[in-house]
Design a protein that fits this description.
The structure is a single chain. The protein is an alpha/beta fold and 233 residues long. A hairpin with a 5-residue loop joins β12 and β13. The chain is globular and about 45 Å long. The two termini are 13 Å apart.
Length: 233
């Protein structure tokens, strides 16, 4: 039986959930059974979701409310949805308490860090002196810039190489990491491109969108590693 993977969704016009098919297909190809999660911040419902999930997949989406890392909004901040932020914080903390696998992409990677006490840049172009193009104009499947992978990391063990190319669609980025995380990959401008927990069986976040790069060998390895961890759970 395939492991059940809870998948977070975006909210559009405050009326319907939106989930890009690439996210669902990536989980299916790797051997998991994706299930879109409803929006809720009720503790009892969060607990029930976590009980049934073998793994949590945090997708990309809009900006994160800076109040979650004790900052006021800066001019570069874009649309936020507090309910989604709060729900994901609750899900992440409970999943990590139970040591259940988490794989997070882009915004999801940022939420991982925020949920555990880290912080972030609200807008890298206005807060950093020099950055590469992290909101590419190329097609979503195009790997536009390179990353350097730390050898002593889970990500390196998955990729089996020190450098890879990734796509990029973000204007926010990780800054100070929570104590439980290490930065396992960086872009050439020094921004953190991947994090992983030092204390859990499988908690991994990447700043890019691997779901859009189904033909990339590293992407396939990432999703398979996550589903293996969910199966073991």
């Amino acid at each position: 039986m395939r492991p059940l993977i809870g998948v977070t969704a975006s909210l559009r016009e405050e009326t319907f959930l939106a989930l890009h098919r690439d996210n669902v297909d990536a989980i299916l190809r790797a051997g998991g059974m994706p299930l879109a999660l409803p929006y809720t911040v009720e503790a009892e419902l969060i607990e029930e979701m976590v009980y049934h999930m073998d793994g949590l997949y945090l997708t990309g989406g809009g900006d994160i409310d800076p109040s979650f890392f004790h900052e006021e909004p800066l001019p570069g901040l874009r649309e936020i949805i507090w309910e989604r932020d709060q729900m994901e914080v609750l899900l992440i903390r409970r999943m990590m308490e139970l040591d259940k696998p988490i794989f997070a992409v882009c915004r999801g990677c940022q939420m991982l860090n925020i949920a555990q006490g880290g912080d972030m840049y609200q807008d890298i172009t206005s807060q950093c002196n020099f950055v590469l193009q992290h909101e590419q104009e190329a097609a979503r499947h195009h790997c536009s810039h390179s990353i350097e992978i730390e050898e002593d990391s889970r990500l390196f063990r998955i990729y089996q190489k020190k450098e890879a190319r990734v796509n990029s669609f973000h204007h926010q980025a990780l800054r100070q990491l929570a104590p439980c995380f290490i930065g396992s990959a960086h872009s050439k401008d020094g921004l953190i491109e991947a994090i992983e927990s030092k204390e859990h069986s499988f908690v991994l976040g990447v700043q890019w969108h691997p779901e859009n790069c189904s033909n990339d060998e590293g992407t396939q390895k990432l999703y398979r590693a996550f589903i293996r961890a969910a199966n073991a759970n």
